[in-house]
Structure formats: structure tokens, C-alpha cells
Write a sequence for this structure.
């Protein structure tokens, strides 16, 4: 049954676009590909999203939102533990998602590459990164997002975001390697100084080299 028969056209277009970026990549997905995958029509793209590019932008961001449930569940296992345990739990999900959703990660890199040529991508990316900095710092410190001040978001969140993006970029462009497991990453991270930025940098470095 076509997507459009089971959901509204907007949702069908978004689901179809997400399927296309996985199968064809961001750069090679056409409007007709999305129409075929969603069971809709070309006019519906303009009506609901304005353009194919805007639809693909939404699909990329929505694909990463799909990871939130798994991340929140993993973090919920360490409500009162040290920051290193929450960071390790986050990394376990991140590493797993990069392995299983490599096509999504690759498509996101193609999307980010448009930042110099698209004001929409530039604006969307700036907003997403702003939320991610604050959210990453809140995750590590186990506080609400609105309790993270701008300086903490800049220092802790920006470092985390830069390292995670760098790790994803390298990981997505190298052959798959055998996973050594969660325990070694946690043990390695616990050996570092227990400050948010030190734990973050050390743990990500361990996961990067394992």
C-alpha cells in the first residue's frame, strides 16, 4: 500500500523523501524519485514544502530526530550516575546508529556540504546546532535545557558537537571495523579527569580509536 494511502500527503512525502535519501543519497534524489516513493504527485511537494530542496532539508532533520527515542531511553538508565556513564550511553547509541544508519549519516554530510550555496541550509543548520549545543551540555550535566547558560552551551556543547560530527564524518568514510564493546570505552573514560569537557573529549577519543 502506498504511503499516501496510509497517511496524509505531507507525511507521505516526508517518509518517501527519507526513504530516498537512504537509497539514493541527498545529492541524487529527484522530485520524481520522491513522488514515486511516496505515491503522491509533483504538485504536492510545492504545496506542502515549497520545493524539493526544502522537503529534503526537512527529511534530513527528521531522520536524526528519529534517533531521539533511543538516546533518551539510554540516558534514562543513568539518572543519578556520573557524567561519564551518560556520555558512554549516548556514545553507545551514536555508534550503533552510525553503523546501522550509515546511509543517513552520508546523506547528512551531503546536505551540510550545501551550506555555502543555500541560505536555507545555512539557517537550518545554525538553528539545529544551536539546539544541539545546549542539549548536549544539558545531557552531560543532567539538567534541563533552560538551565544551561550560554557560556556552558558554548564551551561544553560546542566541543561535544564538534567531536561527534568529526567522529561521524570519519566513521562514515572508513570501512566497518569490529566493535570492541562498551566496557572498554567506559573504563577508558573513567581514567580521565572528571570535568565535563575532559570526560567528553577523552571518551570520544576512545570511541574514535576503538
Amino acid at each position: 500500500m502506498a504511503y499516501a494511502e496510509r497517511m496524509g500527503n505531507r507525511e507521505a512525502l516526508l517518509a518517501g523523501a527519507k526513504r530516498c535519501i537512504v537509497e539514493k543519497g541527498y545529492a541524487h534524489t529527484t522530485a520524481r524519485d520522491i513522488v514515486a516513493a511516496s505515491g503522491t504527485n509533483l504538485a504536492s511537494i510545492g504545496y506542502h514544502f515549497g520545493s524539493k530542496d526544502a522537503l529534503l532539508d526537512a527529511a534530513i532533520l527528521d531522520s536524526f530526530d528519529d534517533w531521539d527515542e533511543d538516546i533518551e531511553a539510554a540516558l534514562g538508565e543513568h539518572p543519578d550516575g556520573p557524567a561519564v556513564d551518560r556520555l558512554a550511553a549516548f556514545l553507545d547509541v551514536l555508534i550503533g546508529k552510525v553503523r546501522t544508519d550509515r546511509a543517513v549519516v552520508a546523506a547528512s554530510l551531503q546536505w551540510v556540504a550545501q551550506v555555502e550555496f543555500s541560505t536555507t541550509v545555512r539557517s537550518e543548520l545554525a538553528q539545529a546546532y544551536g539546539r544541539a549545543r545546549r542539549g548536549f551540555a544539558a545531557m552531560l550535566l543532567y539538567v534541563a535545557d533552560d538551565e544551561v547558560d550560554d557560556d556552558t552551551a558554548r564551551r561544553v556543547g560546542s566541543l561535544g558537537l564538534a567531536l561527534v560530527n568529526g567522529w561521524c564524518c570519519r566513521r562514515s568514510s572508513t570501512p566497518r571495523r569490529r566493535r570492541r564493546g562498551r566496557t572498554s570505552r567506559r573504563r577508558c573514560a573513567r581514567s580521565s579527569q572528571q570535568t565535563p569537557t575532559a570526560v567528553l573529549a577523552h571518551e570520544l577519543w576512545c570511541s574514535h580509536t576503538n
Q: What stands out?
A: Residues 115 and 121 are 5 Å apart (CA to CA). Residues 181-198 have pLDDT under 50 and may be disordered. The radius of gyration is 19 Å. The chain has two domains: 3-59, 67-209.
